[in-house]
Amino acid sequence: MSADPAIEVHDLRKRYGEFEAVRGIDIEVQRGEVFGLLGPNGAGKTTTVEILEGYRQRSDGEVAVLGHDPAVRSRELRQRIGIVLQSGGIYGHITPREALRHWASFYPRPRDVGEVLALVGLTDKADVRSRKLSGGQLRRLDFALALVGDPELIFLDEPTTGFDPEARRTAWETIRSLRDLGKTILLTTHYLDEAQALADRVAIVKDGRVLAIGPPRELGVGASHYRVMYRNAQGQLVEHETDDPTRLLHELTESAIARGERLEELSVGRPSLEDVYLELTADV
Amino acid sequence: MSDTLALSWRQYRLERRMFWRNPSAAFFNFLLPLLFLAFFGALFHGEQSKLDHLVPGIAAMSVMSTTFTALAYNIVFLRERGVLKRIHGTPLPTISYFGGVAANAVTNTALQIMIITVVGELFFGTGWPRDWAELVVFVIAGVVCFASLGVAFAHVIPNFESTAAYVNAVFLPVIFISGVFYDVKNVPVFLRDIAEALPLTHLIDGLEGAMVTGKGLSDNLTALAVIGLWGAFGLVFAVRGFSWEQGRE
Description:
Distance between the termini of chain A: 45 Å
Mean pLDDT of chain B: 90
Number of strands of chain A: 12
CATH topology of the largest domain in chain A: Rossmann fold
CATH architecture of the largest domain in chain A: 3-Layer(aba) Sandwich
Number of strands of chain B: 0
Strand order of the largest sheet of chain A: 5-6-7-3-8-9
Helix content of chain B: over 70%
Helix content of chain A: 25-40%
Radius of gyration of chain A: 23 Å
Shape of chain B: globular
Radius of gyration of chain B: 18 Å
Number of domains of chain B: 1
Oligomer: heterodimer
Largest sheet of chain B: none
Strand content of chain A: 25-35%
Distance between the termini of chain B: 39 Å
Number of helices of chain A: 10
Strand content of chain B: under 5%
């Protein structure tokens, strides 16, 4: 397999009439990577993903998905990708097994249907008509249909929205197992913990722009400030934000010692992804 | 190419299976025209000339209901449900998908025409078709015409809840004006002029020639041309405006 990135996006733009939903996005997703597009609703995540999936035409910019321009909608590219839509339906009278058999026939080297059913945990419901399945079971069928063609690259658009915590964890396990199989995954989510739990790298998107990009851990570190907190002699909680915690701590402790005080409950915190996210996506 | 055909065949088999699993659609497709046939057949009892018009009229109507109506319903439903969008994201060639869908509609039409032909012979004294080749030609022309008009019409329907209203707003006036139940030669001139412009009137003429009067294909070329013209119009709009997903906003 070549070392070319799975996805390359340069200065991607999408206009709907006057409104510009995507305003110059640059991302590069490496093979085998789980990449998260994180942002609030309306940030342009779905528009971006649907351009990469070939559903929408871009207004401007360069895009390559597995070396193909997705706008051409070549069959070869579609044989190599799997798509989990935010809301994709299925025939009401079809069973998961039938649907998977049918979908498998579209691909040159499909996975075994029974194996895919087991992977997503639908073996028990394999012969039940889809209209009788619960929301969570239908979502697992969405995963199964995206996986049955054994794609190299999988798009997951808000894969766990509306899930209960248990179902989310199951979905996360499935996504992790896909990564372990060496699949490249592009995931959109507006859940921070999801991005943190699954993504190797995250792009925080708002108003059609990338605000920050990097591994979830480093995104926190790379942000502008540390938070230093303690309780003063009057018992009040004092909070400082700084780029240079070493110097600040030195000053604080020096003056406290000089006054013969203790800095009760002293703590130095690195901003979490959540802090970064909230700060970046706050409406000013 | 063989792959495309094989996938059409698979899609066709899936469509057949889904069709029979949805009893209300099956009812609409098969029983409604037969109920109309039974009702008007009883009404026209003993008037052979009216029965001779009714049987091909109902046959033409069922061409329209198994293609135009069924496809408009199906496409709006699958589009709203997001099934079309999902299919569009797979490597299934568009031509294979529509090949399967169209073959499914054709099967329903063929079954329906067979049933009506048998019922006409057994109960309404219309006899067996005089010209089988002509019957096949007109059924095929009718299917192509009304199937493409149905797909084109699906673009206009905003959501599934309003499908019945939209479809019936076209289907009911057309079957009455085109003279499914009676001969349009006896209606006021302005209605007859409208009828002459509609494809269903000409499909009835063609089927009447093939099934009852024996008026041959060469005498019905104008009818075939009108159906063809509507079909071409339908095809252009079916392809041009086709949307795989529900519009947003």
